[in-house]
Write a structure and sequence with these properties.
With 164 residues, this protein is an all-alpha fold. The protein contains five helices and no strands. 12% of the residues are buried. Keywords: Bacterial flagellum biogenesis, Cell projection, Cilium, Flagellum.
């Protein structure tokens, strides 16, 4: 394994994460529009990229481990930072650049995913409020048997009365 192969693997990771970021941004728009079919399609596409990233990430781990073992660093942590420390130019600067690019992309992806989570939560709250408005509330002003009253209250609950 060479440092050049590691650089190529990291570049693949960066490209895959950029595509994942694009999908996450599109998902934000879809969530704002409330298009469930498009959301399902986006999530399927997102899964493809997540699986590809996992595969390339495993390759990266093996390459880093192999490079560090070649330098007799077996007891150390197998990190990209450690590889950068032992690398020589021009690979050292290329590794630093791609590491910074990945950090930037991952940070932006984290922010977009946090927004998507908030949008999803708001959509679920809207659905719950809508269901509460549609479900009639039965109020009794008469006195009745307390046990019968309790049974009636529980029978009015919808099967949708739960939080996801």
């Amino acid at each position: 394994m060479s440092t050049e192969q590691l650089v190529k693997t990291l570049q693949k990771l960066a490209v895959l994460h950029e595509h994942l970021l694009t999908i996450a941004k599109q998902k934000s728009d879809i969530l704002k529009n409330g298009d469930i079919d498009a959301l399902n399609q986006q999530m399927k596409e997102e899964q493809k990229y997540v699986l590809a990233i996992k595969q390339i990430e495993n390759e990266r781990i093996m390459q880093v481990q192999h490079l560090l073992e070649n330098y007799r660093l077996r007891d150390e942590e197998y990190t990209l930072t450690k590889v950068i420390e032992i690398s020589k130019e021009p690979f050292k600067q290329r590794l630093i650049d791609i590491q910074q690019k990945l950090v930037y992309i991952l940070d932006e992806l984290k922010q977009v995913n946090a927004l998507n989570q908030q949008l999803t939560h708001q959509s679920l709250q809207f659905v719950n409020v809508t269901l509460d408005m549609l479900r009639p509330e039965i109020t009794t002003t008469n006195y009745g048997h307390p046990e019968k009253k309790q049974k009636d209250e529980h029978s009015n609950r919808s099967m949708f009365d739960s939080k996801a």
